[in-house]
Amino acid sequence: VFRRKQGIDVRTRHEVTELDLEQRRVRVRDLEGAKEWWEAFDLLHIATGAAPFVPAVAGADAAGIYTVSTLQSGIRVRRAMDERKPRRAVVVGGGHVGLEMAEAFLMRELDVALVEMMPQVMNTLDPDMGALVSDEVRREGIELYLDERLEAFEVGDDGHVRALVTNRRTLPADIVVLGLGVRPNSDLVAQAGVPLGIRGAIRVNERMETGIEGVWAAGDCVESFHMVSRQPTYVALGTVANKQGRVAGINIGGGYATFPGVLGTSITKFCSLGVAQTGLRTSEIEALGLEYATAQIEGSTAAHYYPDAAKITVKVLAEKGSGRLLGGQIVAGGASRVDSGSDAYLAAKRIDILATALQAGMRVDEMLNLDLAYAPPFSPVWDPVLIAVRQVIKSL
Amino acid sequence: VFRRKQGIDVRTRHEVTELDLEQRRVRVRDLEGAKEWWEAFDLLHIATGAAPFVPAVAGADAAGIYTVSTLQSGIRVRRAMDERKPRRAVVVGGGHVGLEMAEAFLMRELDVALVEMMPQVMNTLDPDMGALVSDEVRREGIELYLDERLEAFEVGDDGHVRALVTNRRTLPADIVVLGLGVRPNSDLVAQAGVPLGIRGAIRVNERMETGIEGVWAAGDCVESFHMVSRQPTYVALGTVANKQGRVAGINIGGGYATFPGVLGTSITKFCSLGVAQTGLRTSEIEALGLEYATAQIEGSTAAHYYPDAAKITVKVLAEKGSGRLLGGQIVAGGASRVDSGSDAYLAAKRIDILATALQAGMRVDEMLNLDLAYAPPFSPVWDPVLIAVRQVIKSL
User: Fold this and answer.
1) What is the pLDDT of residue B341?
2) Rounded to the nearest 5°, which phi and psi values hold at A144?
């Protein structure tokens, strides 16, 4: 379809095994036919993405241990659910993938344990906000083991995982999912001499061109510019990848476009809880040596008397002196069972107010009188985001 | 409680009947004791609000015809529902109050007719967006009469309304609600010489002081500054009133605060539909003589494959040349019965992204790469607001 409609010669099941920047060519292997050849290029675009991290511990290659990144990898987990009918799942890692998989296992009525190396789940949040998520994980009936490190897997005679061993205990497991983050797929281009940035991600400029002229890159394999810290960062998120791909495509096609960078905005749903953040968190602000103030308020997603009003906690971080907004975090909804059908988690999408203000470089005093939408089903008279802004101004 | 805790001498059931700016005093009447006296002031704050408009047509004072503004007025309607058990309601006016009352009558299983003078309901929206709301009103089973003007009421021998007469037909009615907007309560202060602005609202400066030194005003009785048109406007909304009241209070208390103005942001829920707007609409832009482009896109409130994904229509208006964002309108959800429990209407709260960008004075090209929150339950990879922004940029 692509070849016919767009004039693009798409080759699936073909792997690039080597990149030759001197002679501007790539070594291609046909995974079906086992042929190999050199393919010349004028311009090269790298979109190799990232791969889930699998720690080098004993038993990590046993059957029944999964990572989840592609559609295909999700189908594999579902097939294992149908075929082996596991009764007990252990999830390693309490980030986006870990929490989403834990929820999926709960919905399938498995016993679920979650192991996280850090003192909280969602460790991209400040500890006070992360604690709200940890509480909710326990409330939904998950055995939560914080501050515990995966050390090995016990494998049965059938080659299938039987248990997970941490530094503190052994947890029986019929199925294991690893949600330990991703690493950029940059080995091949690094070997060829394309410069890398932080965390092994490919360094690119605002137009998404790498350090090598005519070689472009976008998505989970590249480094990003953080618009608040003004330093390099690594963000592997679909919405960023998509925006970067658009910019790279315009430039490769002879146009001109720039990508301004990222705020690290992210959002996730765990059962009836919505969790979102944007900008810098406390530890990042401290690492930059900035003086800051924070405010955390507990409010309501709707007018307090409205039937579906749910709890929302908003934290705002701002710079002392300048009053510049630095970041924000939201936890909304929760305290209800998986199947309750409450959509209170949607209120976490209010993070977009803070993301827009951050990208516009607003000061918190400029945000105080933001003319946000109010009607009882949607918000209290003062939106919880503005209540948090009012609060942080007092501490500046 | 107020007197004890805050040192404020609150007198309910006392009416101010005259304002004497020369001698800095107000004439007070005790509605219980029928006493009257002059009360002196150093500083005066006017928070007289607004009153629902009642047209001077025959029968308008009949029993069974209601306006809804205060809590008390809502209780009166509910009491009438319980006592007279009306089977057929007629609502006049298709704005916020009209639509909310129509929904309330539907939930009480009444037959509902809605009469609107303009060619669409929600006539603060552009016609193409308003048509989506009119369609939903009909889909929910309301008899909708557009382009029809209320001319009189027919009143029964018992003094109770029996029917509503328009320029085209007679509509039987057991109960009538008028949702025809409000008028600022400014007669008293105008007689005393306090200068008024547009639509009879009290003119105030950025600190909420009227044209008379030491006389302050805030809320539904005052004129506002529109931050996009940079012209006076009249907005009677609780969230604006509350923000203005805070600014007036700080200034009256000897502090210093300013109110930057309004964007005209508003939101409402009609059954499962959310309707929101901010900034200028097409007719307002044309009246200002600005050159503009618009884009209207139909998207999804969540990833298209996500179970609860609902329809969302976003319209964005931007200035040609400068690329400045001018306004936006959102209609989300809909096409489901009153009791479906769908919360898709909440997606209209995305208007806050546009409101924040407007208040920050962003150009649409600056908004293109806004780092908004994405995860499948919350949004497509490109938020519908950004898809509309992309679209409008092409027309600039």
Assistant:
1) 54
2) -110, 125
Q: Dump pLDDT digits (tens) for A283-309.
A: 999 999 999 999 999 999 999 988 878
- Per-residue pLDDT, B116: 98
Residue B294 in contact with residue B372, Cβ under 8 Å?
A: no
Distance CA B212, CA B49 (A): 19
Q: Are B271 and B103 in contact (CB under 8 A)?
A: yes
Shortest Cα–Cα distance, A17 to chain B (Å)? 31
Predicted local distance difference test score (pLDDT) of residue A338: 45
CB of A201 closer than 8 Å to CB of A184: yes
Chain A from 334 to 393: CB within 8 A of any B CB: 341, 343, 345-353, 355-357, 359-362, 366-367, 369-375, 377-379, 381-383
* Chain A CA closest to residue B378: A346
Is the pLDDT score of A131 beyond 80? yes
CA geometry: angle A72, A76, A78, nearest 5 deg: 115
Query: Which chain B residue has its CA at the smallest distance from A266's CA?
Result: B373
Q: What is the DSSP string of A238-256?
A: HHHHHHHHHHHHHHHTT--
Residue B338 confidence (pLDDT)? 45
Would you state the pLDDT for residue A341?
54
CA dihedral B317, B318, B320, B324 (to 10 degrees): 170
Cβ–Cβ under 8 Å, residues A221 and A47: yes
Each residue's pLDDT tens digit, B69-100: 999 999 999 999 999 999 999 999 999 999 99
On chain A, the residues whose CB falls within 8 A of the CB of B271 are none
What is the end-to-end Cα distance of chain A in Å, rounded? 58
Start-to-end Cα distance in chain B: 58
- % of chain A surpassing 70 pLDDT: 98
pLDDT over 80 at B195, yes or no: yes
Mean of the pLDDT values across residues A221-227?
Answer: 98
Map tokens 């299938």 to a residue: A160
Give the H or E element holding residue A332. Answer: strand A325-333
B387, B297 Cβ separation under 8 angstroms: yes
All residues at 6 or more sequence positions from B249 whose CB lies less than 8 Å from its CB, including other chains: none
Q: Do A274 and B237 touch (CB under 8 A)?
A: no
ipTM greater than cut 0.85 = yes
- Specify the DSSP element, H or E, that contains A19: strand A14-20
Q: Kindly state the tokens that stand for A6.
A: 């767009």
**Buried/exposed A64-100: b ≥16 CB within 10 Å, e otherwise:** bbbbbbeeeeeeebeebbeeeebebbbbbbbbbbbbb
- Beta carbons within 8 Å of B56's beta carbon, 6+ residues apart: none
Q: What are phi and psi of A37, to 5 degrees?
A: -160, 170
